[in-house]
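Hey, quick one: can you model this chain's 3D structure?
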Amino acid sequence: MLAARGEQIHSASLHRNERSAIAILDARGIVISWHDNLPRARPYDPGVLSRHVSQFYLADDVALHVPARHLAIAAEYGVDTQRGWRRRPAGEIFWGVTIMQSILLSDDELLGYSHVTRFVRAPAQHLARPLRAELQHATDLAIPA
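Sure thing. Here's the predicted structure for all 145 residues.
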């Protein structure tokens, strides 16, 4: 049922020619279906499946529990929208708008989530953030002389 929902969202996205990545998650946030229509998308990566949605977020955001909060808000209110830096499976970083929507059974039991991230141009004040974070990480890993 969740995989079929993913196919519906993917087909609609292709029809509208949207630049988006679509993941269907189970109730724990594990990716069970994934499609990438973003610019410069690489061929399908099966390594995305059976891993937590946090793989699409920067390490700083994971440490701040952003993916967990995103899931919790979508579970509580039905949907949550966030803008921010996201990570592709191959590691490329991009600015996007992510819409997380809960998928419920007829008795309102949580079945899973749709996680749709649309590529958008980053506001100028955010352009340097990933570079600063990557440089700091590289500096932290440097071996002292």
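One thing worth noting: Residues 2-15 form the longest helix (14 residues).
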